[in-house]
Amino acid sequence: MSATYITLIGYIGWTMLLLLVLAGYRTVLSKQMKTLKFAADGSDVPDVGHRITRAQANCSESFAIIGGTLLLAIATSSTAITDGLAYVLLAARLAQSIVHMISTSNLAIQIRFVLFLVQFGLCGYWLFMLFVKFTS
């Protein structure tokens, strides 16, 4: 199995794991709050819950770019373009989420931004290479 396939599976699995963590957190919290209502942005829960909510949402929001790029490579049998750096992208995604859940300090925000730029840059590079491949 190519690195692109594994990265896509890992990305989806990570997003699902964060959703399960969030659901578990909210389930425990709902017993204390006596309600099952929740704000989708996590603004109604303590800081750690807000950070988990945002980390999970950020994975979902980024899927259009990251998942879309990986799926395009897979669908067009172009994983040779993405395989070389696919694990770097997955590591940056995991690290961004972990940093997001650990802290919201200025340094943590800067680290998250750098990790986001790695992912964005890789997808941009891959899309350019795919474009070149199919327009040459």
TrEMBL record:
Keywords: Membrane, Transmembrane, Transmembrane helix. The chain crosses the membrane at residues 6-25, 63-89, 109-132. It comes from the Bacteria. Pfam families: MAPEG. Coiled coil: none annotated. Its main location: membrane. It is found in: Membrane. This is MAPEG family protein.
